[in-house]
User: Fold 3-oxo-tetronate kinase from Alsobacter soli.
Amino acid sequence: MLLGVIADDLTGATDVALMLAREGMRVVQTVGVPAGSESLPEADAVVVSMKSRTNPAAEAVEWSLAACDALLGAGARQILFKYCSTFDSTDEGNIGPVAEALMERLGVRWTVACPAFPANGRSVYQGHLFVGAQLLSDSPMKDHPLTPMRDSNLVRVLQRQTQVKVGLVPFATVEQGAAATRRAFEALAADAPCIGVADAITDGHLRILGEAFAGEKLLTGGSGIALGLPDNFRRAGLLEPKGPPRPFHAPAGKTAILAGSCSAATRGQVAHAIHAGVESFALDPLAIAEGRLTPDHVLNWATPRLGARPILVYSTAEPESVRSAQDKLGRDAAGALVERMLAEVAQGLVSAGVTRMVVAGGETSGAVVGALGVSMLEIGPEIDPGVPWTLAADGAHIALALKSGNFGGPDFFTKALAMLD
Ligand SMILES: Nc1ncnc2c1ncn2[C@@H]1O[C@H](COP(=O)(O)OP(=O)(O)OP(=O)(O)O)[C@@H](O)[C@H]1O
Ligand SMILES: O=C(O)[C@@H](O)C(=O)CO
Assistant:
């Protein structure tokens, strides 16, 4: 193994796995903290997906260190800590505490923090994160239920989370190339260990950053920071030249879409699919809580409709409706109720012959993948930036497209399924 990736959520892990696969690495994604290095598969890069983004910081640190040790034990030469391209975190963590703990474990004086992902509109300029044309703090992320992002200055945001010094490697330096960029990180760490928030507006900047970290033990960032890493290994003679994409064969069978994300992009995608004539079933959290709606109701509706044309089961709702369910049931209880329902529906659909499934939402995907007994995913072709098709390597025999809430174009669902034929 060349590269070991520790990702703080499932769909974020799939995102970075796609980035590496597109750059010619053989990538496997595992689900959950590995028991040890012997449980990890052989590949150029192994991406360990956890569910640690919003857990208590101490737990996120413990899991990340366990993942790091397992990856190092399996031969990883470099570790990448992958978090969200919108830097989802709070003043308590978990980006700062995990980065700090990994620096200490790996014995590094400096590392990078860069969530830029230009293909999805995330850019960093003078340490400020933009989502499209908006500052992070003006974007819908300001109202995120768990990690509201109300400060766009990542140097400030990260400094509140860590004892390690946080500095800036600005655009003008990155533009000068890998050598100047590397010198800037070294200079920042001259007096004390330092995390440098790096500006990056284009893929070219991300490739320069990657090159600046050739041979270094640790990077942190969104999936974009992985862009230049495979070429480093190639230049060092450790990785084959980039070949044609590996063939991807989804098992033949029935198709379904499950959406538990209420993010703006998913709301648009659900509306688009319904408008395009996809038969759909809406889940009402209150009806589930009161026992008026069970997985059997949904499966009785779905089973006779299953075939080559997809069906859609969704809890996706507008913010007011989500708030109203949360007020009545509690935020976590409402989420757990819906996740459990979608997970059980997924199990029933697979028993009824579904072999191609699109799932929208990181938490939702975690619940579904867990219920299907999948602990390892092979990475297939890109559907939209940051979202690949994957093939379950164990558990259910199924192709899965696990979509981050905010990713994908309006026609994502139908586009994803059409790609398989
Ligand atoms: N109608 C609803 N009312 C209340 N909670 C809901 C409703 N629909 C879904 N949920 C819950 O909201 C959460 C959505 O999180 P999820 O991670 O799946 O989507 P996301 O946040 O859009 O995606 P990502 O994490 O990839 O950005 C889940 O816990 C889900 O069960
Ligand atoms: O980086 C992103 O935006 C995604 O991969 C993600 O982590 C969504 O949860």
In short: The first strand starts at residue 3 and ends at 7. The chain has 15 helices and 18 strands. Residues 9, 11-12, 15, 84-86, 222-223, 362, 386, 404 surround LCNOYBR7 (ligand 2) (CB under 6 Å).
